[in-house]
Amino acid sequence: MIRKFKKDKLEVRLYEDRAASGSDAARCVIEKVQELLAVQPQVNIIFAAAPSQNEFLQALRKAPLEWERINAFHMDEYIGLKGNAPERFGSFLYNAIFGKVPFRSVHYLNGNEQDITRYSDLLTQYPTDIVCMGIGENAHIAFNDPPVADFNDPYRVKVVELDEACRIQQVNDKCFATFADVPTHAITLTIPALMAARFVYCIVPGPTKANAVYNTLHGELRESVPATALREHENAIMFIDQKSGSLLAGLDV
User: Fold this and answer.
1) Checking CA distances to 128, which of 40, 48, 121, 184 falls within 20 to 30 Å?
2) Collapsing DSSP states into helix, strand and coil, what is residue 148?
3) Which residues have CB under 8 Å from 190's CB, separation 6+?
């Protein structure tokens, strides 16, 4: 680790490169899961699906955890893709971790409006202990893009229209071949649903996230920069590398 600092309540850790940030984030999550399992029968974790999470998920799935005591969820899913489509976030997470370790249960979003009630009920039944997430290029968290983000959202799960910048990012991340291929709508957990977690670990590597990291840490707390919600969470850590943190150089953070 190169540096550690705080912005409001949010702890930020800066690393040499994305591999170091991802592996240390995994270490922190592993230690927290072990700590929780020592005092409670199960742990409930929500995962993000994005290339930015690759190093973190690769390190996490190698951990000798009591996976059979962990319930897994994910935070968003496209509407309109076939159930077996490789672009689905459920498919990503199956290949990255859900299909790699023996979770007690895995709860997928299906990408339809029936998920609103079903998944809201699941979040009540399994209160979230840990969220493992990233930040989008437009500073979205899950699919809470600036036009639809609501820090006081009355819902836990909702249908959203995806912002153009968000859809462009999916092409830049090579998740879709063209902009026209990217669905226009999705199901997402809301910001209050994510921030209800007891612990949040936010992994944000890479040069394309530099503006989002800067705006998250130096902007006003506002819904036009959804990730600023992290600065009000009591137990959140952001893991960045030199590329995503490049605009912070020389600043009093």
Assistant:
1) 184
2) coil
3) 142, 144, 150, 153, 155, 156, 157, 158
> Tokens standing for 100?
């790699």
Q: What is the pLDDT of residue 251?
A: 47
The pLDDT assigned to 250 comes to 53
Report residue 253's pLDDT band, with 50, 70 and 90 as the boundaries: very low
Residue 16's CB is within 10 A of a number of other CB atoms, namely 11
First to last CA, the chain: 16
Please check whether residue 168 is in contact with residue 140, taking contact to mean a CB–CB distance below 8 angstroms: no
The torsion angles phi and psi of 64, rounded to 5 degrees, stand at -80, 60
CA distance 13 to 18: 12
Secondary structure (3-state) at 158: strand
Which pLDDT score, from 0 to 100, does residue 172 have? 83
Question: How is residue 193 written in tokens?
Answer: 């649903």
- The three-class DSSP label of residue 5 is strand
